[in-house]
Amino acid sequence: MPSVDVTVVGAGPAGIGMALALESLPGLKYTVLESNRVGESFRRWPPQTRFITPSFHSNPFGLADLNAVDASSSPAIFAGAEHLSGTQYADYLSFVVDTAQLPVSCGYRVLEVQPRRLGGFHLITDHGELDTGCLVWACGEYQFPDLTPFPGGQWCLHYAQVVNWQALETGCYTVIGGYESGVDAAFNLLRLGHRVRWLVRRPTWDLPEVYDPSLALSPYSRERLREMEASDALDIVYDADVVEVAIDAKGGFRIHAADGRHWDARVPPVLGTGFLKGGGAGQIADLWEWNDEGHICLSHIDESTRIPGLFLVGPQVRHDQGIYCFIYKFRQRFAAIAREIAQRLALDPIPAKQAAGAWGPFGNAECSNGCGC
After folding, report:
1. 267 shares a domain with 280
2. Domain range holding 329?
3. Are the beta carbons of 127 and 118 closer than 8 angstroms?
4. Does 120 share its domain with 233?
5. What is the bridge-based pairing of β-strands 242-247 and 253-257?
6. pLDDT digits 0-9 by tens, 214-232
7. Counted domains in the chain
8. Quick check: is 148 in a domain?
9. Which residues neighbour 71 within 8 Å (Cβ) at sequence distance 6 or greater?
10. pTM for this one?
């Protein structure tokens, strides 16, 4: 039976970025398992969807591209674009894998994870079994949408289920949800000539006292919102706390709010209400401890508080200091995990320069030390 020191599950930006950090540890035997293709979640984006964080080549001046997974590459240079499409970004990740010759195995689905009594994990995949000392879970969230945020959610079209906005029939659409995916859905529908009723619980574009794009709209989405507000084809309904979607007698849809209001729609409402808490980490839900809000509890080095040797990377990482749901945030956690693994295996640690300054003088070095942002 094959055995490795570390297994990374998932080959999106979190998994590939983590692999690059592990690659710097001499003598480490590790592998990356991906159930589909490198960057699969991004390949499933509608072709109209773009990154809300801009890419720009500032590496020569000591500041990495916001969407890069290592300090030397730049999605902006690779794709020649500032706001990349999903396919462009997935191709960038594949380029990084090929250039660094990372040990990524695609088409390997992990079916079961069994913690071993004396430490480590036994993995059962659709291509055989594998023993690993440490396990890094990097499965993201896009492929794990919350399809039933309220009763009747199954009758709706979730943002993550849209293959191409251009394929939708002409009509009047109702979009539920006021955060990033709700903005993108409304924007693309309007641009394609549809009428849009947009139901938002609260205006996420009102800036909080301390601005954080994880809690309020990004500047890119705010810019598009201003463009949408000028359209007569958009009707924004505020304080719309949707609690149910039902099918009416004519085969249409009735959307109910908590305050008793309702709206009728002839086509399925579009859900821009987000993804399952924990995302892909929910595949091994019993190996994590979950707090009262449904989020995963982690140590200061992003290790499971229930099973030693199990680490989480990616947008599901949360600490009291912040939410790490952007690439430029969660990439700063890679070095802390790699350094901890090196220490446990008595390997040479990551060079101090790389660990503390990998993201340039304007990077938050404390993040890579596991202290949070």
Report:
1. no
2. 3-143+276-368
3. no
4. no
5. antiparallel
6. 888 999 999 999 999 889 9
7. 2
8. no
9. 59, 64, 354, 358, 359, 360
10. 0.92
